[in-house]
Amino acid sequence: MNKQAFIIYKKELRDMVRDRRMLIAAFSFALLGPVFMGFIFMLTTDSDAEKQNARLAISNMAQAPGLVAFLEKHQITVTNYAGEAEPGRVPDGTDAILLLPDDYAKSLSQGSMIFGKLYVNEASKTGIEKGHEIKDAIDGFGGYIGGIRLTARGIPPAIVSPIIVSKFDVAEESFISQTTSGSFLMLIIMAPFIGGLAVAVDTLAGERERHSMQPLLAQPVSPKSVILGKLAMVSTFSIVGTLLALATFLFAISLVPAGTLPIALHLNMVTVPLIVLQLIPFAIFIASVQLFISIQVKSFKEGQSYISMFMMVPMFVAYLKIFGGSKLPEMAFFAPVLSEMESLSSLIFNGEPDFAHMATSMAVAVVGIYILAKLTAKKLESEVMLDAA
Amino acid sequence: MIIVKDLAKTYGDVHAVRNVTFRADDAQITTLLGANGSGKTTTLRAISGLLKTDTGSVTVDGILVAEAAMSAQRRLGVFPDSFGLYPRLTTREHLVYFAELHGLEGQPLKAAIEEVTETLNLTDILDRRTEGFSQGQRMKVALARAILHKPGNIVLDEPTRGLDVMNIRLLRTILLDLKEAGHCVLLSSHVMAEVEALSDHVVIMADGVVCAEGSPAELVNQTGQPNLEEAFVVLTEQNQIAAKPTGQNDQGEAA
């Protein structure tokens, strides 16, 4: 950085640091990160319900000792139900209600068909899973009883069950793991976007609106130095915001009991410096995009509108990775932002660098910074810079 | 010394200035006098190196602005039409910032700030943030910023706009002092009293062209009018008539 750019950097930094709104806008996201992650952890805790026994309440339970024993053998906790004949809801502490007819025992002993009613609450993913688990177990009991009846009559049960299949889940990671890891990545990737947003708008569009651009351009200082100084200031906010978000992320992780997260994190003395090394050029790149947008507009408000739209980019990319990652062609992961996420993902969740995506994202950042800084400086030479909104 | 020669600038179909030629000498106050939209600000911006002209040239102390804008800007102190201050910075911080951009540092910088503080009586506002300053205080900071590095040429675009009588008098005194010190002072204005009281040389502009120039007394004599205001009206009307295509009446309609 040349001397004049450094003078501009010092002034810009002092100017922005004194604006409380700028500081709140720049760093609130990084500081509120733990709150966001707490929410993620809460969702994760809910997923622990998958590991608990399904809980079933049965009416006329005394008539069905065989069914109860079968269900308990299949890890389902059974209790007696003595509530309404047409339950409007599944009570707390229960995943489903099974209403057996009053003549259950008699029908069973006579070999008659029994009509029961199973009430489940499928308002949540856990509710759906538990309902399926209980229904499968009851069907299993039905099949077991049917098999005994056929055997008693000298008929092999295989006659009515010609095919028996077992289901195996081969997904690399569960949906909850995919969502959690994607959310963590989005949190980190959004930090540079938010860190530099307000200051990028203020330093060019704001300066123009305040009519202070004209006196600055009348000084013996090149547009290149002006943009370099301003880019350094926006980058400082962007980098500090990103590192702060990373620090709060690490702090929040340290509070979580080992083994309770649905994802494995590899944050150590090797991966964390590599993550920082990768995030710094990315933060400067995002700062240069924001400055380029800021110089196109005449007022702070106008700049805010356009840069807020730019904020959607990391969100779209993160959701694309979470929900559509498996369907994207390999080359798509070398696109800006996506290559950044891919490389960070490898570092954070696999503990090993993905050099191809890391090199791509850093090269894109360096080339992007150069081109955008040149274009922004060129635009600063334009006479339209002298007029405000 | 500032020399403007055959300056022309267009924005689309609009001719902002055409064939503007004049000179502003050292130890003199030269005023561009004209109505709103007459081309004063465009001319001053061209002199300040803020815009590129279509044709013509501007030299500041012999330096061609179009070829060496930054060298010319080192010899200029610019007071823009709006003060353009940073509300979160103090007066001192403004001065340090602009002095550093002009290459001042260390003891010379401190001395320059002390001197300008004394000249413009800035002591009571030196370490206050400029947010909430009165127009007079803002004018002082903007002027201090323009003269801090002791430029040979000072360009002021409508410096008295929005100022009260006391601040206008203060500004007038400062400009006269600068003139006495040998600076070339070039300002734009449409306030007759101010122009008459300050100017050694007046350049009257109308519709983007220079329609007359001379000392206030010369312009009054040339038109045979009782004062500069009347002389200005006559000269700009003559310019309008001269510029009107043949066959049009006073309203500009085809006869």
Describe this structure in words.
Chain A is mainly alpha-helical. Chain A has 2 domains: 3-46 and 174-386, no CATH class; 52-159, D-Maltodextrin-Binding Protein, domain 2 (3-Layer(aba) Sandwich), CATH 3.40.190. Chain A is 63% helix and 5% strand. In chain A, strands 2-1-3-4 form a 4-stranded mixed β-sheet. In chain A, helix 6 crosses helix 9 (271-294) and helix 8 (223-255) packs across helix 9 (271-294). Chain A starts with a helix and ends in a 9-residue tail after the last helix. Chain B contains 9 helices and 10 strands. Chain B has helices at 40-47, 69-74, 91-101, 106-119, 135-147, 165-180, 192-198, 216-223, 228-243, and strands spanning 2-11, 14-24, 28-34, 55-60, 63-64, 76-79, 153-157, 184-189, 201-206, 209-214. In chain B, the strands form 2 sheets. A 6-stranded mixed β-sheet of chain B has the order 6-7-8-3-9-10, sandwiched between helices. In chain B, a hairpin with a 2-residue loop joins strand 9 and strand 10 (209-214). The N and C termini of chain B lie far apart (46 Å). Chain A binds chain B through residues 4, 7-8, 11, 14-15, 18-19, 210-222, 383, 386, and chain B through 45, 48-52, 70-71, 73-74, 76, 78, 80, 82-89, 93, 97-98, 100-102, 142, 145.
